Amino acid sequence: MTYRIEQWVRKITSPVMVRIGDENIKMADGKQLAERSFDRSYLISEVSALDDMILIVLVENDKTNDITWVGEEQASFF
Q1: Pick from 32, 35, 54, 71: most CB atoms within 10 A?
Q2: Which residues does 21 contact at the CB level (< 8 Å), separation at least 6?
Q3: Helix/strand/coil (H, E, C) string of the chain?
Q4: What span, in angstroms and rounded, lies between the C-alpha atoms of 57 and 59?
Q5: How far apart are the first and last CA of the chain?
Q6: How far is CA 68 from CA 1, 20, 40, 71, in A?
Q7: What number of other Cβ atoms are within 10 A of residue 42's Cβ?
């Protein structure tokens, strides 16, 4: 399964540096980031300026399956 990041990043026209843990990925703009697929579900935890580019820090979304298809939280019976 592949995942995409929140699509509002498409509006960023400046160069983007994406940080996932210790890994840094440079991209030409937010549109390139919006079109990229990831093998895990990530959330944007921080957006800031770094030199001449935008720094976006991603963290893994560990609550992907905690919501039912109607948008309610999963009930735990055990």
Answers
A1: 54
A2: none
A3: CCECCCHHHHHCCCCEEEEECCEEEEECCHHHHHHCCECCCEEEEEEEEECCEEEEEEEECCCCCCECCCCCECCCCC
A4: 7
A5: 28
A6: 18, 27, 19, 5
A7: 19
- Return the structure tokens found at 30: 């937010």
Give CA–CA dist 16/32, Å, rounded.
9
Of 36, 22, 1, 20, whose CA–CA distance to 9 is shortest?
36
- The label of the residue with tokens 């079109």 reads 35
- pLDDT for 20-74, tens place per residue? 999 999 999 999 999 999 999 999 999 999 999 999 999 998 875 655 556 565 5
